[in-house]
């Protein structure tokens, strides 16, 4: 079809339109019919279907659409797919179905590769599901290395340690920490970074200063109320993601607590929300767009390599994180 | 393949795995092979390819991934696609290419229907492009009715008039307005609603109170600086979308202007950002998820109707908007 299009000086779509009897301009139809005759082209439905079925189709499972991380992830995946000419089949996780059913549906629906963000990659790890799916799969932003899955991630523990060290360096001694959802490995590894930084500076880990959230904005509201109601409230709070950090800033405004003079706030991800609140958030930048691009590119390479009958060796690719310092953090005030 | 799967009591994917020599559990392979023999099934590559090519594949073009409206749109489209079992081919607009080239690419890449959000539907209207593409297409959130395209939208002018009336009802007399990008029809129709409300209340339209933004957060920062630098600044500002309204709140915080006591702020869209800033935004709720669902459902119906050789009549579906009153608006202060 592309040869006919080139010969006729029209788009392959016009060729398809003529072949399928759809409306086109008279001179386009003439040019296509002449090219079909010149090249002795025999339209073949099967070949056309196979050609349109051949592109790389990457399935991506997501959830929590209100989450700023998820919008960043979607945008990153869409960008990378556009750049590499891959198709994305994006599916939202449905609570009433099993992960296994959803992933099999995606593969049966045409996905020939999968990107599985946390926490789904973590849930699938160790279950044998990946082997049964039998398509190349890359885990994205898993909270730790996964023994049976290739992944693209940042070193969450090191990043959280760096951010905590930064807050300690500003002079904070009572630093609150809002953990992530329990089904996310980051709830463990980011907390571990916080714990290590305190340890390195001989600061006591006060269990009252560590509260659980579930990565949603709303859970951040409750966690903040809990921390600010302590008899000795923290002078800084580090949340496991930006949505919860935005909630901390919101509660501070409501209680007339000045950020950062009276309370420093730090997040994690550098998702768009971090710039749109005031003061803008100090946060750990995870380069989600780049990371998704690496995942997409890896999958295209794997699919393009015919020698992949054997199970692939798993590899973990580390993306560089960085601390982004904005207006939400400063030295503790003297109040 | 589905008959074989049913007969064998396994998933169609397992049948595909056996046929294609991929690894499956021994008893799965046995069951599939027995079913293939029982049913005298002849794997046919073409039929398989056609089957996988047959699903509804809706192309969706978007841009400005940092925009809260766009993330809401993506999430809505993904939700609706999941619910209806349609596939989405999502493509980001690339500045260096023409709209025509991108849309033809999407159709050639397998999209058999298109959803075109503003401003792309508006740019395509009247150019004949839609007819040449020759796939069912629905415009989403166009700023007005489009003569040559079916669309799903809210009545932007009526909504903006209602919001302006609400602000007037609170007692505001100097109400600033931040317009959208010039290539969006909403820049005209939402402004028209603002103008009409002032007219109905015999309030003068002060041209100094109307500034141009481009719907981005950053453009909202500049627009706000301009309005707040007036000798007689407004007591309320109504922005054409939530991202720009969030920027107004941000500038107010920075200048130590209390929202809403000293400045009321209203947005448009009710995108997730409107809840995550403090104070939360009073805004016009556009039910993007429902609207995208209507667009997806309409396209599936059109595709499922074989009697669509004739050009379809265009129709405009109006979704109900509503005013969402949150903390960013109040009666003007006495300062």
TrEMBL record, chains A, B:
<dbReference type="InterPro" id="IPR010982">
    <property type="entry name" value="Lambda_DNA-bd_dom_sf"/>
</dbReference>
<dbReference type="Pfam" id="PF13377">
    <property type="entry name" value="Peripla_BP_3"/>
</dbReference>
<protein>
    <submittedName>
        <fullName>LacI family DNA-binding transcriptional regulator</fullName>
    </submittedName>
</protein>
<dbReference type="Pfam" id="PF00356">
    <property type="entry name" value="LacI"/>
</dbReference>
<dbReference type="InterPro" id="IPR046335">
    <property type="entry name" value="LacI/GalR-like_sensor"/>
</dbReference>
<dbReference type="GO" id="GO:0003677">
    <property type="term" value="F:DNA binding"/>
</dbReference>
<keyword id="KW-0805">Transcription regulation</keyword>
<dbReference type="InterPro" id="IPR028082">
    <property type="entry name" value="Peripla_BP_I"/>
</dbReference>
<keyword id="KW-0238">DNA-binding</keyword>
<feature type="domain" description="HTH lacI-type">
    <location>
        <begin position="1"/>
        <end position="52"/>
    </location>
</feature>
<dbReference type="InterPro" id="IPR000843">
    <property type="entry name" value="HTH_LacI"/>
</dbReference>
<keyword id="KW-0804">Transcription</keyword>
């Amino acid at each position: 079809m592309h040869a006919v299009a080139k010969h006729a000086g029209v788009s392959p779509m016009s060729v398809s339109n003529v072949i399928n009897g759809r409306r086109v301009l008279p001179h386009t139809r003439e040019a296509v019919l002449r090219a079909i005759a010149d090249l002795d082209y025999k339209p073949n439905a099967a070949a056309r279907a196979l050609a349109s079925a051949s592109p790389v189709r990457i399935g991506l499972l997501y959830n929590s659409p209100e989450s700023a991380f998820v919008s960043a992830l979607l945008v990153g995946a869409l960008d990378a797919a556009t750049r590499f000419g891959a198709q994305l089949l994006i599916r939202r996780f449905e609570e009433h179905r099993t992960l296994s059913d959803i992933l099999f549906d995606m593969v049966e629906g045409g996905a020939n590769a999968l990107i599985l963000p946390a926490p789904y990659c973590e849930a699938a790890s160790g279950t044998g599901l990946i082997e049964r799916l039998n398509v190349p799969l890359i885990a994205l932003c898993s909270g730790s290395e996964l023994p049976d899955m290739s992944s693209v991630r940042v070193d969450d523990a090191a990043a959280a340690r760096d951010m905590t060290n930064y807050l300690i360096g500003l002079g904070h001694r009572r630093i609150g920490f809002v953990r992530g959802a329990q089904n996310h490995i980051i709830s463990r590894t980011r907390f571990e970074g916080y714990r290590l930084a305190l340890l390195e500076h001989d600061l006591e880990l006060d269990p009252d200063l560590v509260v659980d959230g579930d990565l949603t904005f709303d859970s951040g509201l409750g966690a903040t109320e809990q921390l600010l109601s302590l008899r000795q409230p923290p002078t800084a709070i580090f949340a496991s993601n930006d949505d919860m950090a935005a909630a901390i800033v919101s509660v501070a405004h409501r209680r007339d607590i000045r950020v950062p003079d009276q309370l420093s706030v730090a997040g994690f991800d550098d998702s768009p929300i971090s710039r749109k609140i005031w003061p803008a958030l100090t946060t750990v930048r995870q380069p989600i767009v780049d990371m998704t691009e690496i995942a997409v590119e890896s999958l295209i390479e794997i699919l393009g390599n015919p020698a992949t009958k054997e199970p692939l060796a798993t590899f973990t690719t580390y993306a560089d994180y960085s601390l982004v310092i904005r207006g939400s953090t400063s030295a503790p005030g003297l109040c």
